[in-house]
Fold Metallo-beta-lactamase domain-containing protein.
Amino acid sequence: MAELVGDWGGGEIWRITSGSFPSNSYICLNRAAGGALLIDGGLDPEAIDAVVNKLGVIPSLVCCTHGHFDHAGSAEYFQSKYGSSVFMHKADVKTYKMSNFLLMAFGFSERIKFASITQASDEERIYMSGFDITFIPTPGHTPGSCFLSIGNAFFTGDTLYAQGVGLSDLPGEKPELLKKSILSIWDTLTSNRWIFPGHGKAIEGDRLKRENVDLLRFLGLIT
């Protein structure tokens, strides 16, 4: 299912939720430059590609908030078909390479092919196709989890949700580090900042800080 969910300040944001392990993939458009960016290609590349074709764009780059299969599983598909550059934080490439093991452990029949990854560093900025993307390190859910900052939008993967906390008991997860990461960006979550998570709905930063009670408890901000 595809839905227009917002604007990052320079173009539309489309959300696609699909796959046997549903997660959010996002296509960001740049009105001025005519560029397209895919964030977190999940396990259903054909569903994402159908939206790409409907919009009449070519995703010149794919950026992953982290390396789990439900957020990076389609990266190789788009790299092979469109020549897309694929970016991921360097600390999560090992997590990405574990994807087929985790799929097997979860009992899924899917297996993914691996893209050639351009490894990003902390706070690295990427300028491509009219986009200015910053990899903000938020380790905890995985070692290399990042917020992707684009205009007025944060794409937060499994680090931050509108409701609940991104804890999964998967290998490499560190709850105390996740807490530290979220607190480090807490003051940037304002009414002007939209949060686009890897699962669930988008929400303004200030609303998230008021309404996500489970997160507030996890962070020790309420009892």
Summary: The mean pLDDT is 96. The longest helix spans residues 45-55. Residues 40 and 89 are 13 Å apart (CA to CA). The chain has one domain: 2-218.
